[in-house]
Specification:
single chain, alpha/beta, seven-stranded mixed beta sheet, 11 strands, binds 4'-deoxy-4'-aminopyridoxal-5'-phosphate
Length: 382
């Protein structure tokens, strides 16, 4: 058991109760593939897969059918599938200045094929104004892709206002909810999204290697699959099926991952996203108050209302990597330092190239752990 784990933005720990058991049970007692054989065990596994899609559909208020909830290895895969499968030479995309490399690296690759992008500006706390999207619109703007909250500063993006503008201008909106799925309520239908990409291993408290991409039927039709292959269906043809979810789910799926995510979703839904939000907000408040008088820069909004349970500190005169190392060595506090796969977010926050030490809280983080972390940070200055 790891104590003082404050790196939930990288992956949540501990996972929801029952996740490990569900995965082990599947491997040890069921272990079969789905969509291939017609025996009873395969049908049992297939039912759990369907049930997991249904839970994700409910959790994110997805208006489509559960066959449009596509399993992916994580948020990165879904974002790549959407960007690479949708954009064509000459297309223009709008992103925010705070994006993760899961968005920026595919887009930078796509620049080679004539795709261009503009960034919605953010201030040095990572805050954006949705209206700043409007002057960036061009006749060839085909997509808006934004993260719901920054993985560096925790800053929450103004999603509702942005979604409203995207609806007004008729541009599909894709949301990277890596830092918010399970931590903030997300209503796919009310926002009128085209797609939502989520990892299973962060706020959804499932295992690594499983995630989902939720696509409206009209948007799904516009995507070329990144991977094609065996789906266990339409095996009389060498053409990829065009029906969902097979169109985007070639090859044997991560069934242990789906079993784990299925168990995790029961726990997450029982707890309720509002109560996890209240808990992480309270811890963020406690942490911010605890470090306010120290000679550090609190990078980000410095306001629990405007951020998820992620706080970055710049130790200014000290080396941030050394601080993170000392926190672990001297106090066993686990954080993540560096640039967090988001170089432009750090440039925006004016923490490039020194990076920050990031503290991120989860459903199992306690007030005692936050108090202990504050004492550990104080010791750095003794
Ligand atoms: N986007 C953001 C904002 C993230 O924080 C992360 C994970 N660090 C990702 C995308 C990628 O998620 P995954 O590693 O699950 O593919």
């Amino acid at each position: 058991m790891i104590n003082h784990y404050l790196d939930n933005a990288a992956s949540s720990y501990p996972k929801a109760p029952g996740v490990g058991r569900a995965m082990a049970d599947y491997i040890e007692q069921l272990g079969v593939n789905v969509g291939r054989g017609t025996y009873a065990q395969a049908s049992e596994a297939a039912l759990t897969v369907l049930e997991t899609r249904e839970k994700l559909k409910r959790f994110f208020h997805f208006p489509g059918r559960e066959n449009h909830v596509v399993f992916t290895p994580g948020a990165t895969y879904g974002l790549n599938q959407i960007l690479r499968g949708f954009l064509k030479p000459g297309d223009h995309v709008i992103v925010s200045s705070m994006e993760h490399n899961a968005v920026m690296r595919p887009l930078t690759d796509l620049q080679e094929c004539g795709v261009t992008f503009s960034r919605i500006p953010a201030d040095q706390d990572g805050k954006t104004n949705a209206a700043d999207l409007v002057p960036l619109l061009k006749p060839n703007t085909r997509l808006v892709v934004v993260s719901h909250a920054s993985n560096v500063s925790g800053t929450i993006f103004p999603l509702e206002e942005t979604a409203q503008l995207c609806r007004q201008y008729g541009i599909p909106l894709v949301v990277d909810a890596a830092q918010t799925a399970g931590y903030l309520p997300i209503d796919f239908e009310a926002l009128g999204l085209a797609a939502l990409c989520v990892p299973g291993h962060k706020g959804l408290l499932g295992p690594q290697g499983i995630g989902a991409m939720l696509l409206t039927p009209s948007f799904a039709k516009l995507l070329t699959p990144l991977t094609t292959g065996g789906t266990g269906s339409a095996s009389d043809s060498e053409l990829q099926p065009d029906y969902m979810p097979d169109r985007f789910e070639s090859g044997t799926m991560n069934l242990p991952g789906i079993m784990g995510l299925n168990a995790a979703l029961d726990f997450v839904m029982e707890q309720g996203v509002e109560s996890v939000r209240a808990h992480t907000k309270m811890l963020t408040q406690q942490f911010l108050e605890g470090v306010r008088r120290l000679p550090v820069r609190i990078v980000g909004p410095n306001d629990p209302e405007q951020q998820v349970g992620v706080v970055s500190l710049d130790f200014c005169d000290l080396d941030n990597a050394e601080v993170a190392f000392r926190l672990e060595q001297e106090s066993g506090i686990i954080t993540r330092c560096g640039l967090h796969c988001a170089p432009n977010a750090h440039k925006t926050l004016q923490t490039f190239p020194q990076g920050t030490v990031r503290f991120s809280f989860g459903h199992a983080t306690t007030e005692e752990e936050v108090a202990y972390a504050i004492r550990g940070i104080n010791k750095i200055f003794d």
